[in-house]
Design brief:
Order of helices and strands: HHEHHHEHEHEH
Bound molecules: flavin mononucleotide
Mean pLDDT: 97
Structural class: alpha+beta
Number of domains: 1
CATH superfamily: NADH Oxidase
Number of helices: 8
Distance between the termini: 36 Å
């Protein structure tokens, strides 16, 4: 796929087909993603690829924790508030998702179903969890993890797969640690659901928005 088309065509997938991804395909994907840049080539990431029974057990536990509204137990702090401009964008994508599912703001039951579907990783057959050692400066490791995930997401899109980078997959780090066999000395940063997209599902097709270049660029010189 041409690079421009890959960058513009990648989007977060929120409905996956259940088909498993062959191990060789996952290996190819990770082979590409490892070429992401990192601070001093430190490559702080370690990836746990969770599929099959362990993934089903995690999915069930994650949904139960979310359904019981358990307080989050993340390894890195999650934002609780946003500046107004960013909050508006956050609310905007939430509205697009809900509308594409045929729900309204008032449909609390439907919105809750969506929340639980999110906790169930949108039906993805694979979850990649990115961890870093506890003794690296997390602010910098975050950049490296972001670069790794974007590279992975583009490589997956190039091969006809879809991803959703998901804070919702790391809300309960202890559950991930247990089911994904992640050692205590690794900090869980972020997960990405991976699978073949339900391409016709409206939730995978709504129009996405971005700020215009002039809204975030200051030209100097
Ligand atoms: C760090 C991070 C965490 C995210 N967490 C979630 C999540 O928990 N649930 C979700 O539906 N989307 C999640 N997303 C996807 C964003 O909503 C999405 O990237 C954004 O709306 C832009 O849309 P696009 O990825 O389709 O271009 C996350 C994205 C990032 C980068």
């Amino acid at each position: 796929m041409e690079l421009q088309a890959a960058i513009r065509g990648r989007r977060s997938i929120r409905k996956f087909r259940p088909d498993p991804i062959p191990r060789t395909v996952l290996e190819e994907l990770l082979e590409t993603a490892r070429w992401a840049p990192s601070w001093g080539n430190t490559q702080p990431w370690e990836i746990h690829v969770i599929t099959g029974k362990p993934l089903e057990a995690f999915r069930e536990a994650n949904v139960a924790a979310m359904a019981a509204s358990e307080p989050l137990r993340t390894d890195v702090p999650m934002p609780e508030t946003w500046p107004e401009k960013l909050k508006a964008r956050y609310m905007g994508v939430g509205k697009s998702v809900v509308t594409s599912l045929g729900l309204t703001r008032e449909d609390r039951e439907g919105r809750r179903r969506h929340q639980l579907h999110m906790a169930a990783l949108f039906g993805a057959p694979c979850l990649l969890v990115v961890t870093v050692p506890r003794d690296v400066l997390v602010e910098y490791a975050m950049l490296d993890v972001g670069l790794f995930l974007q590279t992975l997401a583009l490589a997956a899109h190039d091969r006809g797969m879809g991803t959703c980078i998901m804070a919702g997959s790391v809300h309960y780090a202890d559950l991930l640690r247990r089911h994904g066999r992640i050692p205590e000395e690794r900090r869980i940063i972020m997960g990405a659901a991976l699978g073949y997209p339900e391409t016709e599902a409206p939730v995978n097709r709504f129009e996405r928005l971005r700020a215009a270049v002039e809204d975030f660029v200051t030209w100097v010189g």
